[in-house]
């Protein structure tokens, strides 16, 4: 592993970086409620931890720069709960665009956004596209769920579909990473809107291709969805290891991606002129 922390490098270090073989990795989290049993930092903790664990699995010949975690995300859907710290969607897009621009100015052309908060993938996708357009960068958006789910026993089908926030899996991951932050005596089965919508409607879903706009209090009075009482640290380790391995594979793919495949407008216009002459 050739992991370096962005914040620990000097200007000389940046001058000597190889843009073709350097990957910047930006963990994206949030500071928002995760029920009475998990900390506000849950998403940021998961994003940063998975990036650190994935870095240990990356080959030594890849120069990986771990950036400071973007801890404050777009959590307006949780704004009625005390403790939420949030940007608006527009502000967060501006923040990430400016971070991406700083990466480009440092001479680095490959940037991975790794997100652990379900309320901001759309912003991440727009940001990746805009950075590609403006700076000819290879920008990749990923998350734990990009890696699929591991084979694990003890997760009911309902929980796999409905446990989207502070449920069995997320609580298990925090139990594995930081058990001191989990108050299992306050864990509940936060059953609510997702199950009701699925039972009543054929097409509408809270999460899916045809989705309803929602706020956290719509899901459940505690703003959660899923059965946290089923959580175990052992299950958390299974998911953590699976996600870290998946992210490591994404990092390897990005490192191998040829920058020549990123065509500038001038390159494309040149191709068109040649074709017209032919």
UniProtKB/TrEMBL annotation:
Annotated GO MF terms: hydrolase activity, acting on carbon-nitrogen (but not peptide) bonds, in linear amides; metal ion binding
Gene3D superfamilies membership: Creatininase
GO biological process: riboflavin biosynthetic process
Pfam short name (any one): Creatininase
Family note: Belongs to the creatininase superfamily.
Keywords linked to the UniProt accession: Hydrolase, Metal-binding, Zinc
Keyword Hydrolase applies: yes
Cofactor(s) required for function per UniProt: Zn(2+)
Keyword Magnesium: no
InterPro entries: Creatininase-like_sf (IPR024087), Creatininase/forma_Hydrolase (IPR003785)
Name listed for the protein in its UniProt record: Creatininase family protein
């Amino acid at each position: 592993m050739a992991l370096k922390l962005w914040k620990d490098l000097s200007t000389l270090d940046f001058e000597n970086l190889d843009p073709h073989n350097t990957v910047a990795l930006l963990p994206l989290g949030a500071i928002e409620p995760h029920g009475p049993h998990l900390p506000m930092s849950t998403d940021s903790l998961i994003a940063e931890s998975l990036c650190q664990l994935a870095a240990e699995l990356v080959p030594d010949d890849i120069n990986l720069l771990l950036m400071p975690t973007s801890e404050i995300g777009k959590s307006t859907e949780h704004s009625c709960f005390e403790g939420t710290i949030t940007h608006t969607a527009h502000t967060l897009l501006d923040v990430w665009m400016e971070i991406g621009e700083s990466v480009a100015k440092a001479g680095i052309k490959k940037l991975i956004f790794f997100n652990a908060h379900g309320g901001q993938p759309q912003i991440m996708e727009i940001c990746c596209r805009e950075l590609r357009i403006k700076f000819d960068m290879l920008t990749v958006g990923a998350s734990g769920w990009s890696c699929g789910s591991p084979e694990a026993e003890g997760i009911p089908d309902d929980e796999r579909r409905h446990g989207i926030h502070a449920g069995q899996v997320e609580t298990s991951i925090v139990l594995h990473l930081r058990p001191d932050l989990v108050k299992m005596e306050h864990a509940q089965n936060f059953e609510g809107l997702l199950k009701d919508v699925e039972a009543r409607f054929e097409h509408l879903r809270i999460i899916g291709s045809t989705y309803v706009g929602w706020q956290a209090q719509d899901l459940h009075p505690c703003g959660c969805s899923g059965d946290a009482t089923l959580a175990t640290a052992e299950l958390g380790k299974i998911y953590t290891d699976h996600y870290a391995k998946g992210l490591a594979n994404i990092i390897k793919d990005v490192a191998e991606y040829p920058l020549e495949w990123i065509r500038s407008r001038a390159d494309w216009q040149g191709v068109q002129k040649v074709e017209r002459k032919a």
